[in-house]
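check these tokens.
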Amino acid sequence: MSRMRLTGPALRLTVYVGEHDTWRHKPLFAELVHRAHQAGLAGASVFRGIEGFGASSLIHTSRLLSLSEDLPVAVVIIDTAERIHAFLPQLDELVTEGLVTLDECRVIRYAARGAEPPGGASGGTARDTPGGPTNGGTPR
């Protein structure tokens, strides 16, 4: 499936759930990512928290001596406002507990690995310079 180029104004949809929350015997975070992919959204990532609390006011932590194992998970999905708003009704079915937020954001760069840099293949990039950024923009 071909993905569109996304730059400029966008919406960031963040769904906060527990890592043990499920949908039909499958992790809820995985179902959210799968549905976002099926809907052709630009991208989705899952981030596992090490500690947090929500509406239940129970603190969930990864600390060794804690009994809690249901750590917080954030599923972050970014696309145009129109596409995110079209996706929101699926959350009514899937998310029965948790928090859902929408934030305006601006996409600066959206490219797949191995994609040609802006300006064509002949132009050098920071990756090509000694000591320049590597994958992910972090210095060597």
Q: What stands out?
A: Residues 92 and 139 are 42 Å apart (CA to CA). The helical segments are 28-38, 81-94. The chain has one domain: 8-109. Strands lie at 8-18, 22-23, 26-27, 43-48, 51-52, 60-61, 72-79, 99-107.
